[in-house]
Amino acid sequence: MKVFLLFFSAIFVNNFVLARFLGICPFLGVSKRLETATGMGIAVTFVMTVSAAISWFLDKLLISTGLEFLRTIVFILVIASFVQFVELFLKKTSPDLYEALGIFLPLITTNCAILGMVLLNSLMKLNFVEAVFHALGSGLGFALALVIFAGIREKMDLYDLPEPFKGTAIALITAGLLSLAFMGFQGMVKL
Amino acid sequence: MSRLRELTKGIIKENPTYVQVLGMCPTLAVTTSAINGLGMGLATTAVLTMSNVVISLIRKIVPDKIRIPIFIVVIASFVTMIDLLMHGFAYDLWKTLGLFIPLIVVNCIIMGRAESFASKHGVLDSMLDGLGVGLGFTGSLVLLGSVRELFGNGTIFGYKVWELKIFLEILPPGAYITLGLLSALFTYIGIRRKKRGEAK
């Protein structure tokens, strides 16, 4: 039961972008077109879930050897090498997907959503299954927010905005309204 | 004179938050009050300055192909140090900033400065560059934190200003909307300045 609660609360209540403020850079950066936003959402969900699984074992190893203070360094190296691995793997096996994701793949390394996810799992002391589902939910939540936001921004290009609001300013205000809408989910799931 | 410019350019002209739109996650997340913004800004400045110095020192011996992982390890080591120091000496602040202290590692500003400046320039210039950009970042965080604290809680740095309290300002939507309005204001000032320059 706790697994389902974690999964759904990660998508709606504690949405990574709109409530926890993680992964804002790609959220603002790659949300200009719906297609790229979808690709980015899928890539992040995948990397997030697998990194959470790998890091769970490493975290246990660090705790048992008393080297917890190395957590940040170890996790970021795991994420960086895993992203590199995914990049090489995709290049060989499915060049189409590799082309479509392009520059966003290497950029996932510096996406704070991934490191945040892994550290959060470690802080919340989740067991393996919970950690993986928590990561999957968070990734899907990120993808959902990104896709909705990209949809709104595509429409917004058609409107005539006052000069100072063009670009970042209106994007941030839109994100604020979206976050307001997601606050409606608050209190639905209690952990 | 040119040295001084390395220091000041990051504060206004190349302000990381309002002009370059970098490092958004901590900017939005920790600015519920001015003091939190200040703490986060100073922690980031410390990491940025030290990592810039070290990266500038080792820039000639690092092979080009694996420079990014090496930079990340350097940055992560300094972040771990700051994390432990804050845990020891500023426990309350450490607790409020929480997850966002280890996340300084993936702050794009730091990696950005390492890659675009420190790996190409001398030690002193890199240090000043790190300090300037860091202070620019701190300034933006304090500004956003003050505005949110003022409207959300009626105080600035804990001193009472008025009774007005808009609860929304402290919540996540408030962060986005306030930053959006501030960034529109900065763009507006930029446009007016340009127009005045053209008129002259």
UniProtKB/TrEMBL annotation, chain A:
<keyword id="KW-0813">Transport</keyword>
<keyword id="KW-1133">Transmembrane helix</keyword>
<keyword id="KW-0472">Membrane</keyword>
<feature type="transmembrane region" description="Helical">
    <location>
        <begin position="69"/>
        <end position="89"/>
    </location>
</feature>
<dbReference type="GO" id="GO:0022900">
    <property type="term" value="P:electron transport chain"/>
</dbReference>
<dbReference type="GO" id="GO:0012505">
    <property type="term" value="C:endomembrane system"/>
</dbReference>
<feature type="transmembrane region" description="Helical">
    <location>
        <begin position="132"/>
        <end position="152"/>
    </location>
</feature>
<dbReference type="GO" id="GO:0005886">
    <property type="term" value="C:plasma membrane"/>
</dbReference>
<keyword id="KW-0812">Transmembrane</keyword>
<comment type="similarity">
    <text>Belongs to the NqrDE/RnfAE family.</text>
</comment>
<comment type="function">
    <text>Part of a membrane-bound complex that couples electron transfer with translocation of ions across the membrane.</text>
</comment>
<dbReference type="InterPro" id="IPR050133">
    <property type="entry name" value="NqrDE/RnfAE_oxidrdctase"/>
</dbReference>
<protein>
    <recommendedName>
        <fullName>Ion-translocating oxidoreductase complex subunit A</fullName>
        <ecNumber>7.-.-.-</ecNumber>
    </recommendedName>
</protein>
<feature type="transmembrane region" description="Helical">
    <location>
        <begin position="164"/>
        <end position="185"/>
    </location>
</feature>
<keyword id="KW-1003">Cell membrane</keyword>
<dbReference type="Pfam" id="PF02508">
    <property type="entry name" value="Rnf-Nqr"/>
</dbReference>
<comment type="subunit">
    <text>The complex is composed of six subunits: RnfA, RnfB, RnfC, RnfD, RnfE and RnfG.</text>
</comment>
<keyword id="KW-0997">Cell inner membrane</keyword>
<keyword id="KW-0249">Electron transport</keyword>
<dbReference type="InterPro" id="IPR003667">
    <property type="entry name" value="NqrDE/RnfAE"/>
</dbReference>
<feature type="transmembrane region" description="Helical">
    <location>
        <begin position="37"/>
        <end position="57"/>
    </location>
</feature>
<keyword id="KW-1278">Translocase</keyword>
UniProtKB/TrEMBL annotation, chain B:
<keyword id="KW-0997">Cell inner membrane</keyword>
<feature type="transmembrane region" description="Helical">
    <location>
        <begin position="126"/>
        <end position="146"/>
    </location>
</feature>
<feature type="transmembrane region" description="Helical">
    <location>
        <begin position="166"/>
        <end position="191"/>
    </location>
</feature>
<keyword id="KW-0472">Membrane</keyword>
<dbReference type="InterPro" id="IPR010968">
    <property type="entry name" value="RnfE"/>
</dbReference>
<keyword id="KW-0249">Electron transport</keyword>
<protein>
    <recommendedName>
        <fullName>Ion-translocating oxidoreductase complex subunit E</fullName>
        <ecNumber>7.-.-.-</ecNumber>
    </recommendedName>
</protein>
<feature type="transmembrane region" description="Helical">
    <location>
        <begin position="38"/>
        <end position="58"/>
    </location>
</feature>
<feature type="transmembrane region" description="Helical">
    <location>
        <begin position="96"/>
        <end position="114"/>
    </location>
</feature>
<dbReference type="Pfam" id="PF02508">
    <property type="entry name" value="Rnf-Nqr"/>
</dbReference>
<keyword id="KW-1133">Transmembrane helix</keyword>
<comment type="subunit">
    <text>The complex is composed of six subunits: RnfA, RnfB, RnfC, RnfD, RnfE and RnfG.</text>
</comment>
<comment type="function">
    <text>Part of a membrane-bound complex that couples electron transfer with translocation of ions across the membrane.</text>
</comment>
<keyword id="KW-1278">Translocase</keyword>
<keyword id="KW-1003">Cell membrane</keyword>
<dbReference type="GO" id="GO:0005886">
    <property type="term" value="C:plasma membrane"/>
</dbReference>
<dbReference type="GO" id="GO:0012505">
    <property type="term" value="C:endomembrane system"/>
</dbReference>
<dbReference type="InterPro" id="IPR003667">
    <property type="entry name" value="NqrDE/RnfAE"/>
</dbReference>
<comment type="similarity">
    <text>Belongs to the NqrDE/RnfAE family.</text>
</comment>
<keyword id="KW-0812">Transmembrane</keyword>
<dbReference type="GO" id="GO:0022900">
    <property type="term" value="P:electron transport chain"/>
</dbReference>
<keyword id="KW-0813">Transport</keyword>
